[in-house]
Amino acid sequence: MKYHIAVKTHHKTGTNWMNNIFEGFADRVGVEYIHLSQVKDIQERKELLEQAAQGKEYKIFFHPYGRFPKVRIKNRMKFRGIHVVRDPRDMILSSAKYHQWSDEAWLHEPDEKFNGKTYQQALNELTTLDEQVLFEMNNSAAHHINMMHNFDAQNIFFNIKFEEMRQDTDLMLWHRILLRLGLEAADLAPAMELFVQNSIQFGKLKKTSHIQDTSVLPWVRKFPTTQFSVFDEKFGEITQALGYPATSVVMSEVKARETT
Questions:
Q1: Beta-strand pair 157-161/59-63
Q2: What 3-state DSSP class applies to 8?
Q3: Which of 30, 39, 108, 88 has the alpha carbon at shortest distance from 68?
Q4: Taking 60 as the threshold, does the pLDDT of residue 209 lie above it?
Q5: Pairing mode, if any, of strands 4-8 and 79-85?
Q6: How many CB atoms lie within 10 A of CB 192?
Q7: Percentage of the chain with pLDDT > 70?
Q8: Is-contact 140 57, C-beta < 8 A?
Q9: What pLDDT sits at residue 258?
Q10: What's residue 217's pLDDT?
């Protein structure tokens, strides 16, 4: 390793996937792995990064929720990071399904916003995917999409698309990611192996509670067409800013293929 590595994900953007890979990698190569979201005090998170910048031992920092702490400008050159993004349409669909049954604590806390019901109870009262998608667009999914869009890269992070990693069966993309993160020759083999071991596209894993659909763009088949206009109004610009095509463009291509 030539730098400290930082890994930033968001809810439903491969959090467990990236955690398993990088935590395993840290164990293999003998570096400290710090799960920043488990450090409750924000100032302490910042101090951990600054202390690492002053030290000689490289570390890996993983942060799936909230904002990544600000690193002093003079220390940013000592870090390299990936920011995993995902097509907002797939994030919404994945959230709508996952939140119906997940045991994550926040889903089971009564909320005045839902007349004293929990998030999960309010979601499960909705009987159609159309309603569930709209619910997510107005609540949890909206929050995380906006967080993803407003992420401050600090000249440390570069964006990686969740979907592209899911298609990376020849490992060319993953190899480029590792090189950009500053891994040296001796580090590449365990990092490549861990990607294969933890990636569903290689047949090593089955569907899990956090991987519900193994197709590349499930939203094309599942997203309610009646909600396209609402989505485009709320997240159309964000979607394209993240590097994903507009809904109308994708659906036109799908229609063209179906008629040929």
A1: unpaired
A2: strand
A3: 39
A4: no
A5: parallel
A6: 16
A7: 94
A8: no
A9: 76
A10: 67
Alpha-carbon distance values, 226 to 131, 154, 190, 238 (Å) = 10, 38, 46, 20
In angstroms, how far is the first alpha carbon of the chain from the final one? 50
DSSP state of 125: T
Helix (H, G, I), strand (E, B) or coil at 165: helix
Amino acid making up residue 177: I
Q: Are 259 and 251 within 8 A, CB to CB?
A: no
Contacts 24+ apart (CB under 8 A), 123-127: 123/96, 123/99, 124/100
- Residue 161, classed as helix, strand or coil, is strand
Provide CB contacts within 8 A for 254, sequence distance 6+: 220
Of the chain, the percentage scoring pLDDT greater than 90 comes to 84
Q: Are the CB atoms for 58 and 85 separated by under 8 Å?
A: no
Whose structure tokens read 């107005």?
Answer: 138
pLDDT of residue 123: 98
